[in-house]
Amino acid sequence: MDNRSYGRGYVEGYEAGLREAWAELIGLTTQSYTGQEMRYVAKTKADSIGERVSKKRFTMEDELGVSLSERSERLSSSGISLQRFEPKKAYILASKDKQRSMDVYTGLAELGMDILGIFRENPDILIETMPLQKQVVWISMQSVPPDSAYQTISPKDMANLTSMIRDFIKEHKNAVVFIEGIEYLILQNDMDSVRRFLNRIKDLITISSSALLIHMDPGQLGPNELHRLSSEIGEIL
Predict the structure, then answer these.
(1) Each residue of 160-209: pLDDT tens digit?
(2) Whole-model pTM?
(3) Residues 178, 206, 154, CA angle at the centre, nearest 5°?
(4) What structural domains and CATH numbers belong to the chain?
(5) Which residues, listed in sequence order, are joined to residue 153 by a DSSP beta bridge?
(6) Are 128 and 191 in contact (CB under 8 A)?
(7) What sign does the CA torsion over 8, 10, 13, 14 have?
């Protein structure tokens, strides 16, 4: 693309954005809002800009058949489409590169999906490189202050983790449960216990409207164990 085409496209997009913003503002003034209510509505719409831009980007990527962000390019090169995840199904994101799975989490969050993120890595570190939703659980022996933005759960307490997931999918429709840290659960328990845990979660997912995404490192499990889990839990991506 030459500079002239780029400049024209930028200006046209800028104008379209301004027109849409002012049209929304004019629409708000026709409602019987108090000043405080107007500020709340305006703030809510401003907070949703990122989600709306992401949805527009995904629509354009689908229509044009090209990637418009580095994350989309990474996902596209790995053969993963965010549109492929279906309710009532479980998927194993098998890769030594954890960033690929984190790209999936981030992409779904930007689309406005409700996600229960269960991580082995400290959320305080994760949030430096990726946005985290409100529902975050850290698998750790450590405790956090009551006012922390996330919860912690012991890797030994898979029964409580199951209850958290059950409550989440009951309260949220068309949501996603994202788990990173299966290898740590295996280390702290044993393979059979973790397999039973995953099968319980899979069963909960199949009677809900949510999807289950599990990051696994094939190098930590071995091909035979990974394929056995896939036959019990869900498709390998």
Answers:
(1) 999 999 999 999 999 999 999 999 999 999 999 999 999 999 999 999 99
(2) 0.73
(3) 40
(4) 1-47 (no CATH), 81-236 (3.40.50.300)
(5) 139
(6) no
(7) negative
Contact of 121 with 179, CB cutoff 8 Å: no
**Stretch 139-145: mean pLDDT:** 92
> Are 150 and 123 within 8 A, CB to CB?
yes
pLDDT computed for residue 112 by the predictor: 80
pLDDT digits (tens, 9 = 90+) for 30-67: 777 777 777 776 676 665 665 566 556 656 656 666 65
Dump the DSSP string for 111-140: TT--EEEEESS-HHHHTTTS---S-EEEES
Task: Identify the H or E element spanning 177.
Answer: strand 176-180
Q: Judge contact between 216 and 183, C-beta under 8 A.
A: yes
Determine how many CB atoms are found less than 10 A away from the CB of residue 64: 9
Looking at residue 146, the DSSP 8-state letter turns out to be: T
**Do the beta carbons of residue 218 and residue 96 sit within 8 Å?**
yes
Fill in the DSSP letter of residue 191. H
- Could you identify the residue written with the tokens 């030594």? 96
Residue among 150, 155, 121 nearest 133 (CA): 150
DSSP result, 79-106: T--GGG--TT-EEEEE-S-HHHHHHHHH
Nearest to 104 by CA among 86, 126, 81: 81
Task: Write the burial class of residue 199 (CB in 10 Å: 0-12 exposed, 13-18 middle, 19+ buried).
Answer: middle
